[in-house]
Amino acid sequence: xxxxxxxxxxxxxxxxxxxxxxxxxxxxxxxxxxxxxxxxxxxxxxxxxxxxxxxxxxxxxxxxxxxxxxxxxxxxxxxxxxxxxxxxxxxxxxxxxxxxxxxxxxxxxxxxxxxxxxxxxxxxxxxxxxxxxxxxxxxxxxxxxxxxxxxxxxxxxxxxxxxxxxxxxxxxxxxxxxxxxxxxxxxxxxxxxxxxxxxxxxxxxxxxxxxxxxxxxxxxxxxxxxxxxxxxxxxxxxxxxxxxxxxxxxxxxxxxxxxxxxxxxxxxxxxxxxxxxxxxxxxxx
Amino acid sequence: xxxxxxxxxxxxxxxxxxxxxxxxxxxxxxxxxxxxxxxxxxxxxxxxxxxxxxxxxxxxxxxxxxxxxxxxxxxxxxxxxxxxxxxxxxxxxxxxxxxxxxxxxxxxxxxxxxxxxxxxxxxxxxxxxxxxxxxxxxxxxxxxxxxxxxxxxxxxxxxxxxxxxxxxxxxxxxxxxxxxxxxxxxxxxxxxxxxxxxxxxxxxxxxxxxxxxxxxxxxxxxxxxxxxxxxxxxxxxxxxxxxxxxxxxxxxxxxxxxxxxxxxxxxxxxxxxxxxxxxxxxxxxxxxxxxxxxxxxxxxxxxxxxxxxxxxxxxxxxxxxxxxxxxxxxxxxxxxxxxxxxxxxxxxxxxxxxxxxxxxxxxxxxxxxxxxxxxxxxxxxxxxxxxxxxxxxxxxxxxxxxxxxxxxxxxxxxxxxxxxxxxxxxxxxxxxxxxxxxxxxx
Lengths: 285, 442
Known about the structure:
A: Ubiquitin-like (UB roll), 2 domains, two-stranded parallel sheet, 9 helices, 5 strands, B: alpha+beta, Gyrase A, domain 2, elongated
């Protein structure tokens, strides 16, 4: 058995720096927004095997036609319109706010289900905190992608965040299930002991499982189309942080929370807090 | 014997799945391969089903249009009817373009009403925008005196002369009931100009039909009983209440249409989508091969079984996508890839559990049974949580405060189908495969 929890501080530092750097990037550089959010017209067109991208204020049908004609004149060749999009500025904001509401509801749903399945809030709260951790990692790193590689915040990015969030909880539950099982089977032992044991058992599975997803995503980055490249890269970041956060964020939080609630229970019943083997009985009731 | 039948059934099922999942119009030398398509009569039920992949606009190319509806001129009580008729009219206009599988939806968001039009594979978008956006034209047509009525031809074909009376001249149309018979009728009231025109028209057409035409389609052709000069008329006939209502709505919407304005337009050229699909398929293929190799290298024979389970999983999911049918978009594909990851996860979980039990010194048979039993808990909890998320994102009740269409829903749908399928294959199929292949050689 490996004592994973011994290096808690290191995990905390890693998360702190990754998220901190991301937030720094958000504050300093922000994002490039696609017309999904700002409103406007984008035109992606092809002239003699070269693809160009053009972005302007919203154009109506006549203006769009004029733009294409003038481009053809300028290039002295017929252009192929690959994509022509015009979006009013209201819609994107509305989509975002609706997606946020849906995500909050989803979090509540997870909270309720996990509270039942794991009999108590600690597991659910830890899983959701790890999910929020992943959210910040993805959002932060996307700001870097946006600044250095020109990735735009669009509806696909919103989808990628949702994917990351569902994957994160999915991955966490597998470890928590193991902890729950050991508690049920063995009963006596500290939460750290069970957590370490569960982490040791599930580490291979966690890594292997993520590897399979990473393979799929790498293939899509290497061979897939250009329109979805940033989307796939975001999913890749999401998969990595989702895998990382289950053992190294969610589990330490679960251990802290369990100890905290145990202490609170002890204090309320007038007993001095103790650490040690018997603590586990609290979970087992 | 019983086992033998079971095996045969399994093979038939797999063959059926493969058949449903075959590529469309795939040519090998002189043969063209197509997926299963059903068209037959079963006890009087006509069963017609084609198993084809439905691609969304982002993959197939086409046009996505969103119109903002100006509702300021309609009273709240008439709003829903007006919206519905606006949608119906747009649907008729879209059908005129002959695109396959257009969708026209009304959406409410706060106090904003929108009409969402998807036109897959359309080439001339501007023409479509103009046609959809123009307000419905209601007009009245009478018989053309120069044209002789050919015997046997429909009376409608003779109504070719425009009377000059249009929807602009109608103040209101509503359903009223005959005071004697209680039968539903549709009332028309005209403005001043309309009153004069209608008086002249009815004066010269007594005993003849005058057609009400919306968007060049005759929706009703009542016969004039007498000259009507007060500007109020009723259309009588053997209407049901519902029919009368529909007629009144149609007349109203022609007369008082909801002005609509284009607020969003996304045109994706057919080449871009096709390239994306081709690249995604190639990438998906390589990704899958890498996953299979990894599983087999790491888990040996169990990995081989998992690979087979994964392939069956892919076949089933594809078949479900084609059966429902699910419109595949890029986010939908993302949802599917995620669910592949989760399907593999179920298998890996089971194998790790079996290995764990074996490490404890249990026999293989017992280890398999215990491993499955133990793994189920984790698989169940993890997948139910994912399904919960997918359910909320899919918004099955179409609540207006949640995403109502497009990207997020497409993602949620394929994710849900993928996870539900993976619960089935991960648990049932993998177990069967282990029983069939592993024990014999193990």
